[in-house]
Amino acid sequence: MEQKFSGLMLLILLFFVSEEAMMQKSEAKRCYYINHHYRGLCIFSSNCNKFCIPRNFEGGLCTNFDCVCFRECPHDHSPTPLGV
User: Fold this and answer.
1) How far apart are CA 70 and CA 33, in angstroms?
2) pLDDT tens, residue by residue, 3-23
3) How many angstroms separate the Cα of 79 from the Cα of each of 5, 19, 29?
4) Does pTM surpass 0.70?
5) Pick from 2, 77, 75, 1: nearest CA to 33
6) At the topology level of CATH, where does 2-72 sit?
7) 41-56: buried (b, 16+ CB within 10 Å) or exposed (e) per residue?
8) N or C: fewer beta carbons within 10 Å in the chain?
């Protein structure tokens, strides 16, 4: 009986720890940077994404025909609006 109780407590503890980690990740803010090295009009976000990832960004997307790269903001920066 005691083993079942300790197993249940461990399961509950793991649930709360994983939930806390997911909440912290979802609270992370993104900073957006127009990539001036991208050549031509940005039409397909998949191409922009492939361009940004090797340059230490999480990804990229096309906005107003510009390739915009994004990553988690440093702790001392406020998030950049997407249209900038």
Assistant:
1) 6
2) 654 554 544 444 444 444 444
3) 45, 24, 6
4) no
5) 77
6) Defensin A-like (3.30.30)
7) ebeebeebbebbeeee
8) N
Using one digit for the tens of pLDDT, what is the confidence trace for 20-36?
444 445 567 899 999 99
Six token digits for residue 15 = 């649930």
Side chain identity at 24, as an amino acid letter?
Q
- What is the domain partition of the chain in residue ranges? 2-72
| Type of residue found at 10 | L
Bridging pattern class, strands 59-63 and 30-34: unpaired
Token pair listed for 22: 């997911």
Pull the structure tokens for residue 30: 């993104």
Cα(80)–Cα(32) distance, rounded to whole angstroms?
A: 6
